[in-house]
Amino acid sequence: xxxxxxxxxxxxxxxxxxxxxxxxxxxxxxxxxxxxxxxxxxxxxxxxxxxxxxxxxxxxxxxxxxxxxxxxxxxxxxxxxxxxxxxxxxxxxxxxxxxxxxxxxxxxxxxxxxxxxxxxxxxxxxxxxxxxxxxxxxxxxxxxxxxxxxxxxxxxxxxxxxxxxxxxxxxxxxxxxxxxxxxxxxxxxxxxxxxxxxxxxxxxxxxxxxxxxxxxxxxxxxxxxxxxxxxxxxxxxxxxxxxxxxxxxxxxxxxxxxxxxxxxxxxxxxxxxxxxxxxxxxxxxxxxxxxxxxxxxxxxxxxxxxxxxxxxxxxxx
Length: 317
Known about the structure:
This protein is of the alpha+beta class. The protein is built from five helices and 13 strands.
């Protein structure tokens, strides 16, 4: 390779594979939307998990492509996740020796490195198909990092690191649940054991006439008998977001870490892009502290300690 050409040297195998996966994802969206897709971020967690963050403004005015890309950089800069690699994916045009063509661009950054990279996949539209032009190109290996080195993670009271991750992952399941469905979805319960294993199930209070409130009450009844093999639990449901815009909704979650004095109820607002795609609006917002699903046990006092208290009381009298 000629000296001075950009390279992916210093990136681990997982990040390199992830960058090319982001290019493929961008091409999938380009095929889906001939008018240009809504920019998105793809995040690779330290544990190998992946999720998509679609980028759309949280006001009623239409957002330009440039504004959505800028929003992506803003959100990734202070990313509240234990990420390993992040990408920002958007549609545009590339001008080179072969002229001007449509292209998918991917800005990537492996956390801990000094610089990010910029990749590009050119393509052209032929009637009803999208044809790739060559292979993905690495345009730059000295991009400004997408994630700030001194970012401060958002703190959630009463939730430890494992429960926080469980909460965010469960919200993502709720987002996926409402994408092809109506705003109101059947509530579901989720638990994570102390061994890290997870389980989820639907909450239906009445097969003939199910209700959200009845399903949640049913879930709380089930959670009241949780034992020490469970680390954390959550109830999830969908509903309207307090806003006049018809296309907006929200995923609600009530989460509790067993042994803590309280839980949290949070809301993740979103906006519907089309029939089966939604975009998050910001990060989860804390609504209120809640009663724990299972009351923490009072510490047992030994008989000897009780006897000492009795003697002390007698002396005071």
